Amino acid sequence: MRLKDKVAIITGSTSGMGRATAILFAREGAKVVVVGRNEKRAKEVVDQIRSEGNEAIYVIADMLNLDDVKNIFTRTMEEYGTVDILFNNAGMLSVTPLLDLSFVEWENVFRVNVTAPLILAQLVAPVMKEKGKGVIINTSSVAGAHAHHGYAAYVASKHALSGLTKSMAWELGPEIRVNAILPGAIMTAMVDSVGGEAAVKHLKEGSPLKKVGQSEEIATAALFLATEDSSFVTGQLLRVDGGIDI
Ligand SMILES: NC(=O)c1ccc[n+]([C@@H]2O[C@H](COP(=O)([O-])OP(=O)(O)OC[C@H]3O[C@@H](n4cnc5c(N)ncnc54)[C@H](OP(=O)(O)O)[C@@H]3O)[C@@H](O)[C@H]2O)c1
User: Fold this and answer.
1) 7-187+214-240 is classed CATH 3.40.50.720
2) Is the pTM of this model over 0.85?
């Protein structure tokens, strides 16, 4: 029970790696706030957590909507009265070629991938600072460290989130530790949306481990960053990618 009685907001936890992390954190004793747009899947995640005897609520929020983002914090404080962990994990993929990118798509990708994590951090930080302790984890990407052809808005937004992680670590310390996870190819709905395992075959074959990742392998990395096991770790971009690009 490494997160006993900790309150954890996990955005993008109706699916994929956020869902796996919500279930793991709850098993470790956290009270989890599940966040996404899809109420059916949000309810399923909360039901699963409660069926294991653990604690969770869900908040429906679209990261494109500022009021929705603020309401995640409001509902968390109403329900649990505090917050110890913020996992900014919701993300929007963009596979539009650079010259075809519209202003709206660019703006939306940045609002989901960069602006919402910033707003949530600004809201939770005073609570964590007052307590003298807190953890923020951002889901960047290997696309937040290297460019990949055809993903300009996504690459730029994840680079921005990687940089924001380091700025947050400077400005929210010493009470709050802030780190990012940079997943490689992880088998989730996001990868399914661009062609599934076949579409990431080159990443699999170009890695020492010769496999794609599973959501649970991100959840265990998030658990490390959320607990005192990583008490001397902040401002880091932790690649969990099977060793691609080494
Ligand atoms: N899978 C990969 O290979 C990979 C690699 C590197 C980085 N990542 C990053 O990992 C994170 C999690 O992605 P995943 O692979 O687990 O994908 P996923 O299974 O598709 O999950 C994405 C989650 O983000 C939420 N979300 C998306 N847009 C949202 C919005 N506008 N407002 C609120 N929630 C929104 C979704 O919830 P609803 O549908 O309920 O709204 C869902 O819970 C993302 O930040 C992604 O960029 C993924």
Assistant:
1) yes
2) yes
